Inverse folding.
């Protein structure tokens, strides 16, 4: 008990609603525990709890169960997130079935959707105790930057020495190609550039070896 899940409403009657939670008997959500009226066929975020008689029940009054301020968490800690709600700033997510946190849209480098469960990290703990989240592991080490740099070199080698990405490319495009944030990508590009392994062009990156081959051919 105590989990939060994204569940499908399978029936609504005079007593309340029922959701499929993977067991033979559907989970009951009484009207008093519904934030908004539920309709059959829809999906909703549900808190699973034990009622006064010790029976499993569900609630969509998520704010009643989930704390705004977190305790026992540390910066950089890996956590499980349930994407619960989109806001003007980004996406509210439930941390480890217990606390609210926020993923900022301008720091997201891949798409997320309501109901999705993802692994994330504690990015900041604000003075008011609220939590800012990230999907990228904080503090990429030098070895991880090197790994991204090698991936860029491999991509260049596989594509005749040219990659149609650079430090001006949109973050989602960079993430789709290499699975990292734009910041990490730029660090890897900078390392390759300083090592004179690439040149940076308006349309992308070119390996220095490819540039030299072209010069020799002329």
């Amino acid at each position: 008990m105590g989990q939060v899940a994204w569940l499908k409403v399978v029936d609504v009657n005079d007593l309340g609603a029922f959701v499929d939670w993977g067991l033979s008997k559907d989970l009951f959500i009484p009207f008093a525990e519904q934030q908004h009226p539920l309709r059959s066929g829809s999906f909703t975020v549900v808190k699973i709890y034990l009622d006064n008689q010790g029976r499993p029940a569900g609630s969509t009054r998520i704010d009643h169960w989930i704390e705004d301020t977190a305790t026992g968490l540390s910066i950089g800690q890996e956590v499980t997130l349930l994407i619960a709600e989109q806001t003007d700033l980004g996406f509210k997510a439930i941390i480890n079935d217990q606390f609210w946190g926020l993923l900022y849209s301008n720091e997201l480098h891949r798409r997320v959707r309501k109901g999705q469960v993802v692994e994330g990290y504690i990015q900041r703990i604000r003075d008011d105790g609220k939590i800012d989240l990230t999907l990228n592991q904080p503090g990429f080490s030098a070895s991880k930057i090197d790994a991204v740099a090698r991936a860029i070199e491999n991509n260049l080698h596989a594509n005749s020495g040219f990659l149609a990405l650079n430090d001006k490319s949109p973050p989602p495009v960079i993430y789709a190609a290499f699975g990292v944030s734009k910041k990490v990508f730029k660090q890897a590009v900078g390392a390759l550039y300083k090592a004179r392994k690439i040149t940076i062009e308006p349309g992308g990156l070119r390996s220095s070896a490819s540039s030299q081959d072209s010069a020799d051919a002329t």
